[in-house]
Amino acid sequence: MKPRVYIETFGCQMNVADSERAATGLRESGYDLCDSADIADIVLLNTCSVRERAEHKVYTRIGEVRAARPNDRNLMVGVMGCVAQLEGETLFDNSSGIDMVVGTRATDRLPVLIERVREGEKKVIDLGERDEGQEAWNVSPVERHSPHVAFIPIIEGCNKFCSFCIVPYSRGRERSRPVSEIIDEVNKLLSLGYKEVHLIGQNVNSYRPRIEAGLEQFPGATPFCRLLRAVAATGMPRIKFTTSFPRDFHPDIVTAIEENPNLCNWIHLPVQSGSDRVLKLMRRGHKRDDYLKRIEHIKNSSRRLALTSDIIVGFPGETDEDFQQTLDLVRQCEYDSIYIFKYSKRAGTPAAKLPDTAPDAVMKSRFLELESVQKHSQRRIYDSYVGRTLSVLVERNSSRSHNDLVGHSTCHKVVNFPGESHLEGEIVDVLVTQAKTNSLYGKLVNRSSVA
Ligand code: SF4
User: Fold this and answer.
1) 2: which DSSP letter?
2) In angstroms, what is the span from residue 9 Cα to ligand 1's centroid?
3) What is the dihedral of CA 79, 85, 86, 87, to 10 degrees?
4) Same domain, 164 and 113
5) Is position 210 within any domain?
6) What is the span of the domain harbouring residue 121?
7) Pair 116, 207 in one domain
8) Per-chain mean pLDDT for the chain
């Protein structure tokens, strides 16, 4: 029997995409993939380090996995992803339950590393760089997280070095994938019946492939704008992209969306703070006004574009006045939704050395106040969808009711409606009849004629 591998994924879409690639490589190398740690011979934890104490969670999870099978001497446990890259050897020092540590650029070498452990080598570790020019980006359809929606990494790493963020250290410098590879992947997904792709990266606007052959025929103010038009030209019904960085967000992105109906009505543009003073401490490289100009352009689009953002409250040195400016910006931007994070210190980042971290009580009260302001405008935005018909990609049955289906609109809203499961994977029109804070409810009108 082939050895069975279970990969448990934490964190962002990039980690999901990495796990899909890892699973593809392992299956090609003769392993089976399974969906439970209980029956696996090899358990891999693909970790995230964005939040504080991430490594503690890893140790806890390893403890649980080992405790479930205390006498199984053949069980192999590996840590991969951002915590592995950042903590390295320390993981072995702090837990005897780890056999292998695999950095963020060593995913392709997993089969070889596992083999080394199976041959008896102790504490196998690889924090090295990618094998330049030989990266395996291909993902088998069976390993994808959905048969309808696929994540396509277009750029990895980040050169921005925002003072609070660990990503440039855990993921390394920016590296863009060649356009031909991306287009080939989209075409392949199209032929397999996929209806939606998400072009993903820590900062997709920075997309700058070394060889731009294939992009010249598509107009665009930046390589990313050209890429958007090139991907749109494949005919993939729905294309989303995330995450955008304000400083690199060129207005031509909005023009590309306006020109191509299959580029979806959603932009995620994290601002992090509404105060110039805090933005400077965060080393974001943009000011409040720069950001608001971009928002104005998005809001003035001929398409109704949904807008989402990320905001940190309680950044070191954030005063009440700074926070009021964030509240004011959030009111002004009228976001469809925001992700609010209480500042969490990440060792090794410049912000970790800053004084004046807000006390927990202040952090909590700012979080709640911002949440309440956002809920107010979000309520109004969601209510405004009632009576409108949205094009929805049906992704699955609802976990609450077997008679209901769930999907996303092109504006990235969760939409629930009664329907039969044979519609899964179809793009349908849904008339919205009710709005809740984070989701919409409606009834099927017909199959969508509009992507
Ligand atoms: S842009 Fe800033 S917040 Fe985003 S990944 Fe890069 S360093 Fe982190």
Assistant:
1) P
2) 21
3) 40
4) no
5) yes
6) 4-126
7) no
8) 92
At which of 343, 359, 383 does a domain end? 383
- Same-domain check for residues 290 and 180: yes
For residues 354-385, one letter each, b for 16 or more C-beta atoms within 10 angstroms of the residue's C-beta and e for the rest, the string is: beebbeeebbeebbeebeebbeebbeebbeeb
Q: Is 262 within the bounds of a domain?
A: yes
Mean pLDDT per segment of 10 residues, for the chain of length 451 residues?
92 90 94 94 91 80 93 93 92 93 92 94 90 75 91 93 93 90 95 96 92 79 96 98 95 98 98 98 96 97 97 96 98 97 91 89 96 96 96 89 90 95 94 96 75 38
The span from the first CA to the last CA of the chain, in angstroms, equals 45
- Decide: 81 and 21 in contact? Cβ < 8 Å: no
Q: Whose CA is nearest to atom 4 of ligand 1?
A: 202
Question: Among the three residues 368, 383, 398, which one is the final residue of a domain in this structure?
Answer: 383
Write the pLDDT tens digit of every residue in 147-194.
999 999 999 999 999 999 999 998 889 999 999 999 999 999 999 999
* Total domains in the fold of the chain: 3
Asked if residue 255 is part of any domain, the answer here is: yes
User: Is 75 near ligand 1, meaning CB less than 6 Å away?
Assistant: no
Tell me the CA–centroid distance for residue 157 and ligand 1, in Å.
9
Quick one: which H or E segment has residue 96? Answer: none
pLDDT at 371: 97
This prediction has a pTM of: 0.91
Which residue, judged by its Cα, is nearest atom 8 of ligand 1? 165
pLDDT at 215: 81
182-241 pLDDT per residue, tens: 999 999 999 999 999 999 999 999 999 976 567 888 999 999 999 999 999 999 999 999
**Residue at token pair 């995913």:** 107
Atom of ligand 1 nearest to the CA of 158: 6
Please check whether residues 158 and 118 belong to one and the same domain. no
- Per the domain annotation, does 132 fall within a domain? no
- Answer whether 164 contacts ligand 1 (Cβ < 6 A): no
- If we measure between CA atoms, which residue out of 238, 247, 291 comes closest to residue 265? 238
Q: Is 26 in the pocket of ligand 1 (CB under 6 A)?
A: no
**Stated length of the chain:** 451
Residues 342 and 204 occupy one common structural domain? yes
The number of the ligand 1 atom at minimal distance from the alpha carbon of 202 is 5
